[in-house]
Amino acid sequence: MFEIVKRDGRARLGRLRTPHGDVETPCFMPVGTKASVKTVLPEELKAMGYRMILCNAYHLRVRPGDETVRRLGGLHRFMGWDGAILTDSGGYQIFSLLKTRTIKPEGVEFLSHVDGRPLFFTPEDVVDIQARLGSDLIMPLDYPVELPAAPAQTRAALDITLDWLGRSVRKWRQAPAGALFAIIQGGLSKELRKESVERSLVHDLPGAAVGGLSLGESKAELLEVLDYTSAMLPEAKPRYAMGIGTPSDLARAVAMGVDLFDCILPTRYGRTGWAFTSEGVVKIRNRRFAEDGGPLDPRCACRCCRGFSRAYLRHCFNVREILGPALLTHHNLSHYAGVMRRAREAIAAGRLAALVGGADAL
Amino acid sequence: MFEIVKRDGRARLGRLRTPHGDVETPCFMPVGTKASVKTVLPEELKAMGYRMILCNAYHLRVRPGDETVRRLGGLHRFMGWDGAILTDSGGYQIFSLLKTRTIKPEGVEFLSHVDGRPLFFTPEDVVDIQARLGSDLIMPLDYPVELPAAPAQTRAALDITLDWLGRSVRKWRQAPAGALFAIIQGGLSKELRKESVERSLVHDLPGAAVGGLSLGESKAELLEVLDYTSAMLPEAKPRYAMGIGTPSDLARAVAMGVDLFDCILPTRYGRTGWAFTSEGVVKIRNRRFAEDGGPLDPRCACRCCRGFSRAYLRHCFNVREILGPALLTHHNLSHYAGVMRRAREAIAAGRLAALVGGADAL
Predict the structure, then answer these.
(1) Is residue A143 located within the same domain as residue A251?
(2) What is the pLDDT of residues B288-331, one digit of tens each?
(3) How far out from the chain centre does Cα B228 lie?
(4) Measured between CB atoms, does A286 come within 8 Å of chain B?
(5) Residue B35: its chain A contacts at CB < 8 A?
(6) Beta pairing class for B207-210 and B239-241
(7) Is residue B268 in a domain?
């Protein structure tokens, strides 16, 4: 399923085979939580070079419902995306975004973020939901904790995560639909991360994800945890850093041997008027762009930078025209695709260190 | 500037020459009030077959400012649209949408709809604004009245409109940038409409628009006024019905010899979940589409209908994903482009009557 084509230090150039095509790694996945990468059409994602995106099992369970998606031919057909799809389980949403939830021996009870109706998820349910969606890569229900967390809380959450992983694996082995990954938890504790890795690896799953990051820790802490955790993961399998990061984070994580990424930054920043450019972050609402006839990023050839000026983009944000957020999102995703392409090319050429050395300018 | 290629009854197949390319008529102009056709890129409009769009001088004066647009190379370059642009003057906005305004001998005083700052427009200003924008077709400041209106009010508004037209023409003749049209007012009064036509025609302008419709009158009244007013307009020049209408309205107006149209319906309806289809209006939020895997319009080949199901479109509206409004807008504009194409083909074949006979199904 995963083949390493070339190495450069700890970094790897790889090929991930999925039922919906091969994906070159390192790879960034645009976030399409509710079966839509906000403002962007599937054909545009493809044109940018994306071959895999991320959706969210919890959100799709709530609306339109995984049974509905299944009856309509699965998630790929539903959203018009014929590339690969990784679905996140919803653990992050349930434990980090919802204020109240109750953990019972069977699973987790919580209230829908949409209408407050009570929901109950077991690890087995979450595997089933993703099987019904037809996801290519499947994430088990996990329990990430907000950082900083008390050691006892991190410990308890890890135990639950590991217990649920075992149950997810048993359920999944009965009918392995997509490729199930383990999710490594353990907060900022090296010991707990190590234990999480060791007790997850016994299941010999197709890949492993480092979870529980971008949850309140500092950038240095994030990179440190990612560094020592990914170093403990098996060489031959894909490694996924969940919810990360800025372009420079991506380059640094690639150098640590991470293969897969997802993050809301390019899409969310795009909608709020922040653009990642070769000249740093551009806040397009700034008054100084009012009569700037130049492109958002002079070194970018995306549809936004080819066709529109900073002045026009600023105007669209000013008068609340959707084209503004849509064009900045398009640019940001193009920029991320470009960063990942450069990372892959750098690994192929054995020159990743140079890219990482200049990561702050990515 | 305007050439009639073929006639079918009162209908005409024509070619309008503009500094930004030829436009085949009858022609519908998508509305891009603030220099953006909401959710749609210029390249998409072109792919649908559009060659002319409408923007609004008043809105662009307020934000980003006509001087800013001029310094940035004009409106076409600003918004990335290399086809033709007609700008409306803002008379409709000032008189029909704003609650307070004061007419003075020089012009009209009112408060900005954005920040309440006082603004003052003279007819000369409005010609200047459109010259700065670089519009291909220019509309004079006019005074439309909401219907029904007292005869004295309609009379007074017409006198002001005619006075302003004279001043607009004098200003415009000094440096005729785009093609200035007269706007015919006169409410529902045949007599006043006739007077408006006669006193406007003395200026021998490149074209004439029928204004003051879609302002509270019934559909029958609208079509009646349009019918007798357009019949009085010169044969050899383009006729423009402002702010009209549904697909069936368009077909009927084409049969009356109207050449140009604009309307917010396809874009606004698209954003609110209403689609014009070959099977009538589809309200996509309806529960019965929840598991409907078919296209929005089985007889449409647009990007929306080719790529997405009714169930997916409904889902996008349900979870407030922008792709929903964007795809429905795309479809509606494609549908309108198709209706106009069919009207032009019907005139060319001498079969417009058949199209108009089935107009309710358009």
Answers:
(1) yes
(2) 999 999 999 999 999 999 999 999 999 999 999 999 999 999 99
(3) 20
(4) no
(5) 312, 315, 321
(6) parallel
(7) no
